[in-house]
Each structure stands twice: as structure tokens, then as C-alpha cells.
Design a protein that fits this description.
Helices cover about 35% and strands about 20% of the residues. It is an alpha/beta fold and about 500 residues long.
Length: about 500
């Protein structure tokens, strides 16, 4: 595979020259956008400027796609186990640099350092897992209905995968998308979130150091309105894999659908923990606090509703209020901090507006409900972990995704009512139930209309070897992660080999 030996890029990224600048990576070279424009990147914990990121144009997207198209023509012919060897190298490099990348992640996204380490570990796990798929990529062999005829199906790459990823899991979600795309034989054009370019740069540098042939992964920074739209509209990008808001996802689906382009959409969630009267309340509180306030509630799987049996509602509320006071806020690089900042001032404002909506709707605040400014936190974007009670399922705070550290308590009188409330939202990503009754647990597993269900755990904690995604407004039926993610990045090809030496007509000559 002489033509696929990666060019050594020594000197293409000068640390001194480009210090504090986050550049595009196109056809194996680190380059500024043709626009020449940069925007600042901020640490959400203290407002510090971390650097500036290039803002790309449609011309930059076109260059990236051109490089990807050339590279993919050769890459698709490389045996999948050979492609997988690059992924094993990526996994090893991620493992070696886990702490370094975690600290970069916390600095630009804000999540506490333990969570950042966990996110990098998720990328490590995904790299090893998808490398293993290089020796699988299973198709099917089936018996033909005709004599002396062989029938099988195989997976083939689609071509160029356009990846659009969010800031809340800047390396985990990028790994969910780029690794299966590459092992399946595709090339990648990736637009990360503008808020988290440093993590994207670290990830691409690892691909580069692993020796991935040039043109197979291309990083293009910029806005969704320019770069994202150019990717969706480009005739040579064969699929778009997007994680983000429902509003943007629907727009992508409309634009891409008109071009008969495949889309994989993972969007919002309004996830609920159900606590029945026989639940271990201390365990339920542990699960709720972690799922509601981990990542400051900025997860699509975050718990934003607690559906509790009225017999234990008051007891659960007391325990939650007692425990929420233990959640320390601050810079996530401090090992003692439990809750970091939200991503930016706009998010802070939106969360506070939802809290005011909850008050206006008649919900009662049990804790939080304000922007935190004391102890020097005014320089960052901190919102107090917030709990509402006396919430009804028709309130906006019980229906709409807030994407912040706000949770609403809704009381019910039965499992059946709890399931109805759980399902009465437009999203269907994750749900959880706490109960000691195995029969009711299995009923919930069957009837909760979500792509992920947890029993006696919170709504977060997906593992990479299972499909990730949801029902209803959460997505469009595709899944990230696990073997199911390969369906996004491959086409099925059915193959028939007739060695009878004569024309045989299926459904005719055999009946």
C-alpha cells in the first residue's frame, strides 16, 4: 500500500507561529481559513481567553471534500483489518494522553475533571472497539433458493461522511462518529463546535501521529450557518451525522432529504427518573444528583424530570435538598469541585429564563434558581443546581429541554401513571426507574418509550458497545456507538454467484 503511506507532517504545524490559534486540517496540512478571520475561545469557568479559532468558508469545505474524495478512493480498497491497525494506534495514543486531553477539555468546556477523564476514556474504548470491528464488519451468507447458486450480503463504505459535533462531549461524540466511519472505509470532513476547538485539534493530531493517510480526516472550523450548510449541500458528501439541537437537526434533515442524502440525527432529550414507593431512596438520590447535575445538566441524557410515587415524594424531596447543598461549584480543574460552569452567557440566560417560566407556571422552588456570583464565580457561567416541585406534566419546564442544572418533580400514584407521564413528551432518549420489584422493572423496560432504559441507575452512563440514540423527536432512527453505528456508515450490497452454468430465474424456475 505504498500509495497510502502517510506523509510525515513535521513542520506543518508550528507551535510558536500558531500559538493560541486553532486551525483547519485539510489534506494533511494545518491551515488557516481562506477568510483569514478568527474568533476568541473562552474558558467558561473564568472568562479567560484560551485562544482563537479560524472561521471557515464554503471554499474551505470544498477543499476538504476534494481531499477526502481522492483519499477515499484508495482507502476503500485497503482491507478492513489493515484500516483497523490505524485505529489501534489512535487508541494507544489517546490512552497515553488521557490526562492531557482531559485537562484541555475541562478548560474549554467546563465539565469537572473526573467527567473529562471519563469522556476521554470513552474515546479510548471506542477506538479499541471499532478497531476490533475491522476483523468483523459482518455481512450474511444465506442459502439460495436455486441449486448451484451462492447468496451473500456485504457492507461497503458510503464515501465521504460529514460529521457535525457539539461542545458538550467534544471528543466522545467525535469518536462515536469518526472511528466507525474510517474503519468502514470512508473519509471524513468534521465540523466541531466553535466552543471546543482545542479538543478537536488534539484528536486530529492523534490521527495524524497514528499515520492516517492524508485526506482521510479533515477538520473544518466555523459556524453552522456557513460550514454546516456547505457540508449538507455539498454533492460529494454522502451522509451527514449530526448531534445537536432539534431545531438545527430538522433543518439539516430537510436540506439533506431534498438531496436524497443519508442523515443520522441525535438531538434532544427530556429524560425522567421514576422513583416508586419501594425504591431505595438513598440510591435514587445518588442517581438523580449525578444525572441531573453532572456536566451541569448539559447532557442530552441528563435527568430533567423526577417522576415520584406520592407515598415517598416528601421523603425523596428532603433527601435531595439535604444532599444538593454538598455540591460545590467552581473551576472543574479543582478536584474538589462537583459542578462546573455552563458553556456560555447565552446558555446561562436561557436557563434562568426557564426558571422564571417555572415560577410563573406555579411550580415551587426547593433549591437553587439563580445565577451564582459569589466567591469569584461571577467571572464564569455558573447556575445553582435547581429543583422544582409541584410540577405538572403539562408545564413547559416539564416538556421542553432546558439543557442546564434544573430538575422538576412530578408526583404520580402508580407505575402506569409514571410510564404515561414519562412518555408524554416529544423526546425519547433515556429513562430510568428505581424499584425493588422485578415484575414492575420488566414492565417499565417494555413500556418506557425511550432508546435507553436504566433500572436502579440514573439516566446517564451509556457504554460504547451498545447503540446510543432515541425515539420520537430525539432522532431519526439511526444510532451512534456499538455495532449499530456501522449501519450509518455503510451500504448493504447483496451478491449472487450462480455456478450452475445455465440461466436460472429466481421465483420462476424453482417453482
Amino acid at each position: 500500500m505504498a500509495e497510502l503511506v502517510a506523509k510525515k507532517n513535521a513542520g506543518t504545524f508550528s507551535e510558536e507561529k500558531n500559538k493560541g490559534k486553532y486551525l483547519n486540517y485539510i489534506n494533511g496540512e494545518w491551515v488557516e481559513s481562506s477568510s483569514g478571520k478568527f474568533v476568541p475561545v473562552f474558558n467558561p469557568a473564568n472568562g479567560e481567553v484560551l485562544g482563537e479559532v479560524t472561521q471557515s468558508t464554503e471554499e474551505d469545505v470544498n477543499r476538504a471534500v476534494k481531499a477526502a474524495k481522492v483519499a477515499q478512493k484508495s482507502w476503500r480498497l485497503v482491507p478492513a483489518p489493515e484500516r483497523a491497525e490505524f485505529l489501534y494506534k489512535v487508541a494507544g495514543l489517546l490512552k497515553d494522553r488521557k490526562e492531557q486531553i482531559a485537562r484541555v477539555l475541562t478548560s474549554e468546556m467546563g465539565k469537572v475533571i473526573d467527567e473529562a477523564r471519563g469522556e476521554v476514556q470513552e474515546a479510548i474504548d471506542m477506538a479499541f472497539y471499532m478497531a476490533g470491528e475491522g476483523r468483523r464488519l459482518f455481512g450474511d451468507t444465506v442459502p439460495s433458493e436455486l441449486r448451484n447458486k451462492f447468496a451473500m450480503s456485504v457492507r461497503v463504505p458510503i464515501g465521504i461522511a460529514g460529521l457535525i459535533t457539539p461542545w458538550n462531549f467534544p471528543i466522545a461524540i467525535a469518536s462515536w462518529k469518526s472511528l466507525p466511519a474510517l474503519v468502514a472505509g470512508n473519509a471524513v470532513v468534521w465540523k466541531p463546535a466553535t466552543e471546543t476547538p482545542a479538543v478537536a485539534q488534539e484528536f486530529v493530531r492523534i490521527y495524524e501521529e497514528a499515520g492516517l493517510p492524508k485526506g482521510l480526516i479533515n477538520l473544518v472550523h466555523g459556524s453552522g450557518s456557513v460550514v454546516g450548510n456547505a457540508m449538507v449541500d455539498h454533492p460529494d458528501i454522502d451522509l451527514i451525522s449530526f448531534t445537536g439541537s432539534n431545531e438545527v437537526g430538522k433543518q439539516i434533515n430537510e436540506r439533506a432529504g431534498a438531496l436524497l442524502k443519508r442523515t443520522s440525527l441525535e438531538m434532544g432529550g427530556k429524560n425522567a427518573v421514576t422513583v416508586l414507593e419501594d425504591a431505595d431512596l438513598d440510591l435514587a438520590v445518588d442517581g438523580i444528583l449525578w444525572s441531573a447535575f453532572g456536566t451541569s445538566g448539559q447532557r442530552c441524557t441528563a435527568t430533567s424530570r423526577i417522576i415520584v410515587h406520592d407515598k415517598v415524594k416528601e421523603a425523596l424531596e428532603r433527601k435531595l435538598v439535604d444532599r444538593i447543598g454538598e455540591l460545590t461549584l467552581g473551576n472543574g480543574l479543582d478536584e474538589t469541585v462537583k459542578v462546573g460552569p455552563v458553556i456560555n452567557r447565552s446558555a446561562l440566560k436561557q436557563i434562568d429564563e426557564y426558571v422564571q417560566i417555572g415560577k410563573d407556571e406555579g411550580a415551587k422552588l426547593l433549591a437553587g434558581g439563580y445565577i451564582v456570583t459569589e466567591n469569584g464565580l461571577d467571572r464564569g457561567n455558573f447556575y445553582a443546581p435547581t429543583i422544582f416541585t409541584n410540577v405538572t406534566s403539562d408545564m413547559r419546564i416539564a416538556k421542553e429541554e432546558i439543557f442546564g442544572p434544573v430538575v422538576s418533580i412530578i408526583s404520580v400514584s402508580s407505575l402506569e401513571e409514571a410510564i404515561k407521564v414519562n412518555n408524554d413528551v416529544e423526546f425519547g432518549l433515556s429513562s430510568a426507574i428505581f424499584t425493588a420489584d422485578v415484575n414492575r422493572a420488566f414492565q417499565a423496560m417494555r413500556d418506557l418509550d425511550t432508546g435507553i432504559v436504566y433500572v436502579n441507575a440514573g439516566t446517564t452512563g451509556a457504554e460504547i458497545h451498545l447503540p446510543f440514540g432515541g425515539t420520537k423527536g430525539t432522532g431519526n432512527g439511526h444510532r451512534d456507538s456499538g455495532e449499530a453505528s456501522l449501519d450509518v456508515y455503510t451500504e448493504w450490497k447483496s451478491i449472487y454467484v450462480d455456478y450452475s452454468g445455465k440461466l436460472q430465474r429466481a421465483q420462476i424456475d424453482n417453482y
